[in-house]
Design goal:
Length: about 160
């Protein structure tokens, strides 16, 4: 028995994989995915479950961006991140105010323009979005998927 124990300690034990400390990014991604499965799936934005998911996504996204600044990005990673930026930028661009001459020339804006002329007000600068509040909620609801995407992008193969 003693010989077997010595052989185990000398030959087999050094070849066994060592338990490494768990990466905080992995834990944050796992928590985000679990919370998404439990709280996600609301029919409209603004429900409590979605608000909680948005709040949980902020630290994960911050940790992911911090890690992105520390590593050398591959071409594929840069392309994927530019795609994420474009997905977020599209609704944000819809929230930028446009001058009255451009805004009133857009389709389905006649009723709003007539309303301002009926009350005797000048046409204000208005965003491209017909519903700015809904567009703002849509931008905020992009936090969880973008945070998970950035987190998983930085994880290793085994952690994914």
């Amino acid at each position: 028995m003693r010989i077997w124990v010595e052989r185990f300690l000398r030959e087999i034990l050094p070849r066994l994989p060592r338990r490494q400390d768990t990466d905080p990014l992995f834990c944050a991604c796992a928590l985000m995915v679990a919370c998404s499965l439990i709280l996600g799936g609301a029919p409209r934005s603004g429900f409590l479950g979605e608000v909680i998911l948005d709040l949980i996504a902020i630290p994960l996204l911050a940790l992911g961006v911090w890690r992105l600044l520390e590593i050398d990005l591959t071409r594929q990673m840069r392309l994927a991140l530019w795609f994420c930026v474009a997905v977020v930028a599209l609704p944000l661009l819809q929230l930028l105010p446009l001058p009255p001459s451009l805004w009133s020339a857009l389709p389905h804006r006649e009723i709003s323009a007539q309303t301002f002329s009926l009350i005797g007000e000048r046409l204000p600068w208005m965003p491209l979005s017909v519903s700015p509040d809904a567009t703002s909620l849509a931008v905020i609801s992009l936090l969880p998927p973008i945070a998970i995407f950035v987190g998983v992008l930085l994880l290793g193969y085994r952690e994914r």
